[in-house]
Amino acid sequence: MIEMELLIGPLLERNGGYSYDTFTRAEGLRRSFRYPRVDAARYDQRALVTEARRDPRCNVRICETQSEFEQLVRAAEAADGAAAAAPGKDD
To answer: Is 53 helix (H, G, I), strand (E, B) or coil?
Structure first.
């Protein structure tokens, strides 16, 4: 019954702060708020995971590396492209 997969990327240092990326097919790629301290970014990331796991329709995948996250995002986007190109989908 899973209707949505939420991909969560690792914490990254960017522009003097810390943030992470998320991806869903519905919302696409999104970047979190940039936090000045890594512990604040980690707290926000954990809160997001906890909240998403409460929804039985959501499958949460936490990526350990940025390359793993990017690979899963590309695979999801490719699956969307293949589904859109399938004949008879809207007929």
So the answer is: helix
Q: Which amino acid is residue 11, in one-letter code? A: L
Q: Confidence band (pLDDT; 50, 70, 90) for 58? A: very high
> What's the rounded Cα separation, in Å, for the pair 56 and 51?
11
Angle 74-70-65 from CA coordinates, rounded to 5°? 150
**What contacts 64, CB < 8 A, 6 or more positions away?**
10
Rounded to two decimals, the pTM is 0.84
Strands (E), 20-65: 21-24, 28-31, 58-62
User: What is d(CA 52, CA 54) in angstroms, rounded to the nearest whole number?
Assistant: 5
pLDDT tens-digit readout, 67-81: 999 999 999 999 877
